[in-house]
Specification:
Elements lengths: L19 E7 L2 H11 L4 H4 L1 H5 L10 H14 L7 E9 L8 E12 L4 E10 L2 E11 L7
Antiparallel strand pairs: 1-3, 2-5, 3-4, 4-5
The structure holds ligand L74YYOSM.
């Protein structure tokens, strides 16, 4: 039995269909530089103004996986929260995120298998109301009964 979950963790026993959680994050040049360093993805479309100017985006854009990381943050911090284990994630990048943009990232519960502790979540990121990422996550949720 493990009942010392941090505030914000929602155990499988309490997860309901349709529950949603979200965050907002302002994406900065520093975020993009740090992500390039950590991931070792130094694609110039993210880092080089001159290079990026001549692409279809006409300027630098954030790594898609940086934006996807905000979905991971909502899942790992809020729904279900601490103790959650990622099982899978689909992603479609529908529009660019540029330095200076504020990303709204939201997840919504669309499936629950209580016996297996599996939870399925629709994932969405928007910038100024425009969809930039959609996908589906499957996670193993924490339980009050097991640590
Ligand atoms: C590896 C890293 O270093 C690189 C990165 O991380 S890049 C950053 C992450 N990616 C992005 O920011 C790209 C965001 N997406 C876009 O800007 C656009 O989707 C696009 C430029 C890739 C395509 O846009 P466009 O050419 O306008 O395409 P259409 O809207 O005209 O759609 C044509 C058909 O393609 C389908 N489609 C479009 N985007 C996607 C997608 N991301 N995934 C899957 N399918 C996509 C769209 O539905 C249309 O299909 P249809 O059957 O013809 O209707």
């Amino acid at each position: 039995m493990f009942d010392n979950f941090p505030r914000g963790t929602i155990c499988i026993e309490d997860i309901e269909m349709g529950m949603t959680r979200h965050l907002r994050k302002h994406v900065t040049d520093r975020d993009i530089e740090l992500f390039a360093e950590v991931s070792t993805d130094r694609n110039p479309v993210h880092l080089d103004d001159d290079y990026a100017h001549d692409t279809i985006f006409e300027g630098r854009i954030a790594h898609g996986m940086l934006t996807a990381g905000l979905i991971s943050a909502v899942i790992g911090e809020q729904l279900p929260g601490h103790g959650t284990i990622y099982m899978g994630q689909t992603l479609k990048f529908l529009g660019p995120v540029r330095p200076g943009d504020t990303v709204y990232a939201e997840v919504k519960v669309t499936g629950i298998d209580h016996a297996k502790r599996h939870v399925t979540l629709d994932c969405l990121c928007t910038v100024d109301g425009k969809k930039v990422l959609v996908g589906e996550a499957k996670v193993l949720a924490p339980s009050r009964k097991f640590d």
